[in-house]
Write a structure and sequence with these properties.
Number of domains: 3
Distance between the termini: 41 Å
Number of strands: 8
Mean pLDDT: 86
Oligomer: single chain
Order of helices and strands: EEEEEEEEHHHHHHHHHHHHHHHHH
Structural class: alpha+beta
Strand content: 5-15%
Length: 562
């Protein structure tokens, strides 16, 4: 899967060495691929097809570069690189031939997308088809309910006083479930596609989107939930107890259940990881909930006319803004001013063979240095940059320094919650403010990253939770939540299915899929590993099973809460 065979044919009277570097690897050193002796010899090697590769042919005796070319290889293809003397004396030509046509690696993905789109279309059209059938006389006589009975039931319900419409935001549950569904899919392998896995270092893939969306949703939920509890008269002491207990449970689940399983062998403190996803989510929730608990405002602002009314959701919470600005200033100072032994100050690179191999042991810069100082070796030892950048140092993507920006990300979600509260019933005001925040955060992300992957002031980096990454994710979160709010809660065009089901049972689905991920029927040993077909089916199957589990729990009205 995602591999191709390259055969190098050397028709020169001297030996050659072929080197390569991935175009995704920023300023990386060339790595040796294959050495071929002189005199009509050849050598074969297997290549990764994830990214385009730059190949360089070097003369063994003189280390002179004979030719250089950039090629994109495709899955299961067989290629021949011919190195021979050109007609012009002293010139060498290198050209590539395709010996066996590659597979279309995107065909399984396209097939799955069409199938899911067809199922969604049928699911959407089914109620309308059923209603259309019920209007026909034949079906009406056989199986449809009498119109007068339905009307009578509606009148009885009105007279009896039916339950009021829930004020719970379906769009928020749907957004949470949508994020969780993508997380389950990518955690089950994402069909083996590289863009469903985390980016090696800088840049974004689908897998890099879901956790900041979760953090954003936590911020929004905290505002809505705690504001509701305070309006009901729940005291601050009781709120502190509640948020402290929830934080403790989240951290313990992350540390005890997500950190170790029997397949890891004998437990050893030397490699036990202290940070983690639930640990970060728990700490972020703790800080955000404390901010909301001790907020000076307990209700919607007064209706007097003030100059700051258009931005009241910002101005009235100036102490919180000062706290967040201080946090972000701390992140910037530690990231760019903290001296790191053996590394340049403010280094944000992956180390290893990146940056021309000048800083091999500087993976993550200040972020990794702080984690090692505080946690020792009890951090993540297999960072996403390890394979591409050939790094040797551990680096934890849920480390201490990145948690600061996780709180900042959650505060953006709190801002969305305040907008929903302050302008309740004013759809236009809510959507306009969501759009304004999206534009501001998007412009900030574009400026910091210079709209490039590696050349910006602060590149977009999920491993570091860089400022540009947080603002970029804030931009996307405001847009997605605003769109879902308009479609689901305002227009009622969509009920949020099927994502609303896992969204209302997120802890159960997340912990369940993490603990049972390697057991049947969610997983099995694949037999056909030379293509994406079986891998994609397994990932979709496991994700679909958890959607089904969430649906049945929803029907049974069982919701796991902490």
């Amino acid at each position: 899967m995602d591999q191709a065979l390259l055969t190098v044919h050397n028709q020169l009277p001297e030996g050659i060495t072929v080197l390569f570097v991935s175009d995704y690897c920023y300023k990386c050193l060339y790595q040796e691929l294959v050495t071929v002796g002189a005199g009509q010899q050849n050598g074969s090697v297997v290549l990764s097809t994830h990214f385009a590769l730059t190949l360089k042919v070097r003369h063994d005796a003189t280390n002179h570069t004979l030719c250089r070319r950039v090629d994109t290889f495709e899955e299961a293809g067989h290629y021949s690189l011919w190195v021979r003397q050109a007609d012009t004396e002293g010139e060498v030509t290198c050209f590539l031939e395709v010996d066996k046509r590659p597979n279309n690696s995107n065909l399984p993905l396209l097939t799955a997308a069409l199938l899911l789109a067809s199922i969604s279309l049928l699911w959407t059209a089914a109620p309308y088809i059923y209603r259309w059938k019920c209007t026909s006389k034949i079906i009406n006589l056989i199986s449809c309910r009498r119109p007068d009975l339905s009307a009578e039931n509606e009148e009885v319900a009105i007279e009896a006083g039916s339950q009021p419409k829930s004020s719970r935001l379906k769009s928020l549950d749907t957004f949470r479930g949508f994020s969780l569904t993508i997380m389950v899919f990518v955690n089950y392998g994402g069909g083996g596609y590289w863009f469903f896995q985390h980016a090696p270092w800088n840049g974004l893939t689908v897998a890099d989107l879901v956790m900041p969306w979760f953090v954003f949703i936590i911020g929004t939920s905290v505002v809505l939930a705690f504001s509701s509890m305070r309006r009901r008269g729940v005291g601050r002491v009781q709120l502190v107890r509640k948020l402290s207990w929830r934080t403790l449970v989240l951290i313990l689940i992350g540390f005890c259940f997500m950190n170790y399983s029997p397949k890891d062998g004998a437990l050893s403190w030397s490699w036990l990881r202290i940070p983690g996803v639930l640990q970060r989510l728990g700490f972020t929730y703790f800080v955000l909930a404390l901010m909301q608990t001790f907020s000076a405002r307990t209700d919607v602002p007064l209706k007097q006319h003030h100059w700051w009314n258009p931005v009241q959701d910002v101005v009235l919470f100036w102490p919180e803004w000062l706290f967040i600005i201080a946090l972000e200033t701390l992140w910037l100072c530690l990231t760019f001013l903290l001296p790191v032994p053996g590394c340049p100050t403010g280094y944000l690179g992956a180390g290893g063979i990146g940056d021309e191999g000048l800083y091999p042991n500087c993976t993550g810069g200040a972020a990794a240095y702080i984690d090692k100082w505080l946690l020792g070796h009890n951090i993540y030892h297999w960072p996403t940059c390890k394979a591409l950048y050939h790094t040797t140092q551990p680096f934890d993507p849920e480390g201490v320094l990145g948690t600061i920006n996780s709180v900042v990300m959650g505060f953006m979600g709190m801002q969305a919650g305040k907008i929903l509260l302050f302008y309740r019933g004013k759809t236009r005001s809510i959507l306009v403010r969501f759009l304004v925040w999206a534009v501001l955060l998007g412009a900030c992300a574009a400026s910091l990253s210079k709209c490039t992957r590696d050349e910006g002031f602060i590149p977009v980096n999920k491993n570091l939770w860089s400022l540009s990454y947080v603002t970029c994710m804030g931009f996307m979160s405001f847009l997605l939540l605003g769109l879902m709010y308009f479609i689901i809660d305002i227009k009622g065009w969509w009920g949020g299915q099927p994502f609303i089901y896992p969204g209302m049972n997120s802890i159960l689905v997340y912990v369940g899929h993490s603990l049972l991920g390697f057991y049947f029927p969610f997983s099995w040993e694949m037999r056909y590993t030379d293509s994406h077909w079986e891998g994609l089916f397994r990932s979709l199957w496991a994700t679909g099973l958890w959607l089904l589990v969430a649906y049945f729990l929803y029907r049974k009205k069982f919701f796991l809460k902490i």
